[in-house]
S-adenosyl-L-methionine-dependent methyltransferase
Amino acid sequence: MSSSTALEANNARFNTEASEWDANKKHVETCNNAFEAIKRYVPAFADGSSKELDVLEIGCGTGLLSFALAPHVRSLVGVDTASGMLDAFNAKVASLASPASANLCAVNVLVQEADDVHIQGAAAALATRRGESGHDAPYRFDLVVSHLTLHHIPSMPDLLATLFQCLKPGGRIALTDYEDFGPEAVPFHPKKKREGVERHGIKKDEMVEIIDGTGFNEVRVEQAFVLRKEVEAEDGKPAREMEFPFLICLGQRS
Ligand SMILES: C[S@@+](CC[C@H](N)C(=O)[O-])C[C@H]1O[C@@H](n2cnc3c(N)ncnc32)[C@H](O)[C@@H]1O
């Protein structure tokens, strides 16, 4: 399947699932786990400086992770390619007590370059909201996060190279997704949701090599948490509960 066909399949799937996304307890559980992992692994959350962070989130979806992070950081720009997921995100922004002063927003973009006009526009809008006037250089971020999205990305080296460019010097990545621990990882997605999935999880050694090869320092890829989830009957195996390890991929731009 070509990457544009896979993207279309993904967008169609997520547009359909968007309105029910947050009602799935497993979606909420993994995002809470990702949020807790980010707080454990990203130093700014431990040293009390997280309110200085400008965050970029790749594949923000309906904002389950974004809205957990937003109160703890200075700003958060989410990006996603599925308009239905972004409609759900925007409905949540609209329901805030003061939407016009929210420190987060989301844009529909396939991130391929740090200077993308949508990302730059979103970062500028949030900066204006917090009273900043003018910004000479393109906006860059202190932290890039992403949860359950890497397995949809066609070229991981290309994405990591873009994320590197999106960061300020000293900025970090903290990317979470389920681990490809072999053929047993395939049932994470039921058969009907596998179209558009680029890989059945991420591989620890492969991610270390790619992040390292991109030029990041302090590279670590570790198991951050485990999700127990029901998988469907397939290939003679019954429906059953399985444990899926999730990795957190870390690195710092010098
Ligand atoms: C499994 S969902 C996870 C959503 C959210 N992070 C969560 O955990 O609730 C994957 C999300 O990534 C988005 N996505 C897929 N490929 C993408 C890409 N190349 N760039 C940005 N978003 C993408 C999808 O539209 C979808 O919203």
